[in-house]
Design a protein that fits this description.
This protein is an alpha+beta fold and 163 residues long. It folds into two domains: 31 residues; 131 residues, Ferric Hydroxamate Uptake Protein, Chain A, domain 1. It is built from two helices and 13 strands. Strands 2, 3, 6, 7, 11, 12 and 13 form a seven-stranded mixed beta sheet that branches. The termini are far apart.
Amino acid sequence: MDLEKIFFGGAITATLIFIILSMTGNTDLIEDKSWAIEETCLGSHSSDISHTHSSLSIIIDGTEQYIPQNIGIQDSECPDGMRGIHTHDDSGRLHIETPSQVPAPIGAFFNIWGEAFNSGQILDNKENSEYEVLMYVNGEINEEYENYIMLDNDVIEIHYQQK
């Protein structure tokens, strides 16, 4: 068998896998969304930066989840500073700090944290026939999920609850 046929067969197989995963909604293997703010690494707090805050609560089946302190502080991507979105304590207060105005999607925080969040999943909890993922921003349902750009003083609640 010649090399051209092997490559052609591999391309067809990869395309079929992509189509099947897309059609079944199982896009975990093909989505790798990231945002510019994830690249921000600040050495310290200073008056020259944009500094806003949002509040995040995650409620799984009626129980509020713990959001750890120091997410995005001196991590592997920013060993000597703070990422563009980070926590200082376990209150759920998200600090959004950048050298200039940079959009801060909530999904970027979850990427920095290393946890999953989208319209079908929060942390290890996936939507199914009995449970759904809902997001509220300032008391109103919001369907932007991970793409929602956080604003100063936003109150964000993500619920995993029975339908």
